[in-house]
Amino acid sequence: MTTPTHKTRHSAGADLTSTETVIIEPQQTRLVGTGFALTYQQRHCMGGMVFILAIRSSIALKRGLMLHNSIGVIDADYEDEIKAMFYNPTNEPVTIKKGERIAQLIPMQYVVGCFPCSDDERTGGFGSTNT
Questions:
Q1: Element housing 117 (H / E)
Q2: pLDDT (tens digit per residue) in 20-64
Q3: pLDDT per residue over 61-113, tens digit each?
Q4: What is the CATH number of domain 17-109?
Q5: Residues 74-79: contacts with CB within 8 Å, 24+ apart?
Q6: Where are the domains of the chain?
Q7: What is the model's pTM?
Q8: Distance in angstroms (rounded) separating the CA atoms of residues 90 and 97
């Protein structure tokens, strides 16, 4: 498992890398694995934690890719591998190479109790609370 890394002391996001080489065809959406899942300690380190997944700006600028859902929201109860959902709006195939830095994971605290909450527990994996 690859651990995300902050590249500078003042980087908000820690870089995630691709675990595979993937070709994303024009107008295609592909999930790209990072091989990383948050530990219990990371998910609950300060209470009320959420992790934002954002594309690296160089991937967007130089390759034309975008995250299909704009940003990813990784809740504290998500225990599976973090994957990036890339969309290729260009007219050319785009290759992401294994080991390439593809996204940033930004830890954030949020306020609990602003909205009603059901007692449901997550029973699904990527992109689903099964509701």
A1: none
A2: 999 999 999 999 999 999 888 888 777 778 999 999 999 999 999
A3: 999 999 998 899 998 888 899 999 999 999 999 999 999 999 999 999 888 77
A4: 2.70.40.10
A5: 74/38, 74/50, 74/105, 75/50, 75/122, 76/43, 76/44, 76/48, 76/49, 76/50, 77/43, 77/121, 77/122, 78/38, 78/43, 78/122, 78/125, 79/37, 79/38, 79/43
A6: 17-109
A7: 0.83
A8: 18
